[in-house]
Amino acid sequence: MIDRRLLIHFDWTLLGIVLLIASIGILNLYSGGPNGETSGTPIYLKQMLWLGIGLGVMLMIAFIEYRYYADIAYIVFAVALLLLILVFGFGIITSGARRWFKFGSFSFQPSEFVKIALIMALAKFFQRPPDREGYSLKQLFLPFLFLCVPIVLILKQPDLGTAIILALIFFSVLLFVKIRWSSLFLLIGAGGIFVPLVWGLLKEYQKKRIITFFNPELDPLGAGYHLIQSKIAIGSGGILGKGFMKGTQCKLGFLPEQHTDFIFSALGEEWGLIGCLIVIGLYLGLILWGLRIAIQSKDRFGAVLSFGVVSMLFWHIFINIGMVMGMMPVVGIPLPLLSYGGSFLLSTLMGIGLLLNLSMRRFLF
Amino acid sequence: MELNSHRMEDFRGRYRYIKAFAGLAFFLLFIDLWYLQVFKGSEFRRLSENNRIRIREQIADRGMLLDRRDRILAQNRPSFEVFLVPEDLKANPEVVGKVGEMLNLSREEMDQKLKGLKRRPAFRPIKIKSDIDWNRLALLESNRVHLPGLLVDVRPRRSYPYGHLASHLIGYLGEIDENELREVKEGIYRMGAFVGKYGVESQWEGDLRGTDGGRQIEVDALGREIKHLRSVESFPGNNVILTIDLDLQEAAEEAFQDKNGSLIAMDPRTGKVLAMVSKPSFDPSVFARTISPEEWKDLTDHPSHPLQNKGLQGQFPPGSVFKIVTAIAGLETGAITPETILTCTGAYPYGNRSFRCWKEKGHGPINLHRAIVESCDIFFYQVGLKVGVDAIAHYAGELGLGKKTGISLPHEKSGVVPSSAWKKKRYGIPWYSGETLSFAVGQGYLNTTPLHLAQLISTIANGGKIYLPQVVERVEDIYGVRVREYPPVEMRRANISERTLRIVREGLMGVVNEPHGTGWGCALKQAKVAGKTGTAQVIRMAADFKRGDMNRLPMKYRDHAWFVAFAPYEDPQIAVAVLVEHGGFGAVAAVPIARKVIETFLNLPPSSPEKATQEPEESVYD
């Protein structure tokens, strides 16, 4: 069933980069994760289990002929939306948000899979090329619907981080597939009118929350405090870092999400500038390699699909690292392959699986 | 597939720009990393040693509780609290012993406190002792330089100037528990925060709480503050003005002396609660610090349940007070008229049992008015049989019994009004007509709270309007601006004719003011009072039991005494329900308490105490 030529063209470089980053991630969780006091399986072991499962799923996705995904794209998207709706009825609440399904000790976050499903649905839609000038606003009605339905559901959970990622993926893809200049300006113009209008309607405390969100220093006891601690952790690593298992700042437990959203501060503290540069370099390599796969795809579906995955990875990486260093607002966006979290690791590896799939089929026509 | 139709060149044109964009983004990340780790590296390294940037909490002042005339019932006072910071103790373990010595705490106690809290960040201060006196404070402060890791902070502590007064209404505070912490929105509360757990303190928590603030500071290697970075001011909570009147409440509490039970006084024109007593009471200030397990056990295991607000959590049969309902059922259904004469011979044989009147000799032929005045049991047995269980149950429901009144206080009980359908559902057996007799005089399955009966007597007094009982008049912010007001809420009107209510009111007036009335102990010269006594059986008496034997019974088997009243008769302004647990007969135990409250409310000089207690042996009425 598996074409021999596929194995010849298998993208070992991509797999290598991914495995390297994931290994650094496990080591980092081993060192920076919560120390002994919490009961149960250490999180680095749980993450290894998820990594194993994820790699299996990734290979499975890689070896199925990708044009088959075009056939089932809308079905996958519908199922993902259904799961999002079901989570309201059957989900469990953690720290005030209803985001998770729980089966025994195994929990699962459907909004993660919506990202992949949205990318598939967009790729399917943009498979048909536009006319010379690009897509018009009228033609974009359906894809807008693809974006808005899950965003409304996810904001209700509430999960601002994932909603932002969905929007960024969507607009990145929009620019990639070429929309009309007139449509683009219209969109920007509409946004320019809409945002101040909504701002005027907001209540004082809502405005204050949004301002604090963009400027955490205004909340010196909450987000602002977490941020300064995160900066101290990264900065105190210096050039060479404090060394593996030698970090102090991140072990104190002042960060609310120290092994998920703020994992990069632990890396910065223990591995210093050198370690961070290696990781950032690997990420850049991953992004550029992914872009090349998108460009070399043999059809539009493949190109949009792989570009969607790359943009998802890019925004996660850029916003997360920017956030822990204080460049970006503090939103709950995890770092691919480094942050702890099964559903997120799985969705990342599913995306990588799609990239591998396209990469090895680029010569097959 | 035609390659041409895919127009891949669109994408290739963008490739360059996208690559450049990604490169630029990563370059920005690199610049920022360089800035943090190289340019500011040494400064951040210094700040990372023993976690130099810390937060000192500033707890908001909790809103005050005031009576209807703005007298303070709950406020805050400063308390000096001692904390240790585990992170700073690592380098100086001897501090634990030294501080322990100064506070008279043994090494074990100290270790216990420091170990007690798990999963807690090491830089978070742990409270060692609260409310230390000035001498200790001076001792600690003067030695502070030698005690790194020590932190003394002044925090607001709840205090209740009148101690036990209205403790059940006011309620108490307690440390927030993990469940509450998980359920409320993030950030409002921190671990160890004190929140309302009972009474108004709990029900108006959202108003009283205020907003905590704090300061972000930099400390030196010994944990001492060296630089103030940023701060957020705390903001005090709103004040809650209660409907109760301090003077009336004090009078009511005193009138109980050492008796247990409950009193609720209400304005029948608005449903506002003027006084709410539950005895025994407790001192809410013991909860404002961390209560010791022994103290807690004493309060919860106490046989008279001091933590229970008996006014709305205690359920008792209403006894003869319920004859008001039976009379209404009789008049409204037309089973009797005010002229109907029924005969009381002292005993009423029914089935294979003999139902007795409290008056052994019997009342002879008697009409409704005199039957209410003298509380004749046999008259009401017969009325009960005439109208039947379900008609009585209907009018009991019409007057608000058997369901919660809806007062904004926690744990209100709904009481029980039995009916034939209720019994079938509950026990699976039909209603026996013999049970109707007990029901008609307020015994048997029937259960009510003192609040129910206060509402019932208010409804009789005001002509059938059922008001929501309320305990809070309004909420004001610290500048005195009204945040919220609680106008009277008329929930519905009892479907009872004005004529019936008038006949019943006349009867109740007779109870207090006519010869042989059971409530004569409440008769006042200056104003007409109307009321009804009642006795709730705790155990069924043997057939040959004599009323006078009650005082020889062990306390826990003695009957509960009831008295409900309103005044002035012509223009009712206060309605009272009094329950004295195991007080024996209503007339003796409960009437003087209601009298005292009504006198105080009407600003009358207190009557001579002899009159209330001086009672002939055989005039012990029900």
Would you mind describing this structure in some detail?
- The complex is a heterodimer of chains A (365) and B (622).
- Chain A has 365 residues and is mainly α.
- Chain A has one domain.
- Chain A contains 13 helices and 3 strands, in the order H-H-H-H-E-E-E-H-H-H-H-H-H-H-H-H.
- Chain A is globular, with a radius of gyration of 21 Å.
- The mean pLDDT of chain A is 85.
- Chain B folds into 2 domains: 53-242, Alpha-Beta Complex (Penicillin-binding protein 2a (Domain 2)), CATH 3.90.1310.10; 246-294 and 308-474 and 483-609, DD-peptidase/beta-lactamase superfamily (Beta-lactamase, 3-Layer(aba) Sandwich).
- In chain B, the strands form 7 sheets. In chain B, strands 2, 3, 4, 5, 10, 18 and 19 form a 7-stranded mixed beta sheet that branches. In chain B, strands 12-11-23-22-21 form a 5-stranded antiparallel beta sheet.
- In chain B, helix 4 (94-102) crosses helix 5 and helix 14 (323-333) crosses helix 17.
- At the A-B interface, helix 7, helix 10, helix 11 and helix 12 of A face helix 1, helix 2, strand 8 and strand 9 of B.
Query: Which structural class best describes the helix and strand composition of chain B?
Result: alpha+beta
Largest sheet composition of chain A: 3 strands, antiparallel
Helix content of chain B: 25-40%
Largest sheet entry of chain B: 7 strands, mixed
Query: What does the average pLDDT of chain A come to?
Result: 85
DSSP, total strands of chain A: 3
Terminal Cα span of chain B? 102 Å
Principal-axes geometry of chain A comes out as globular
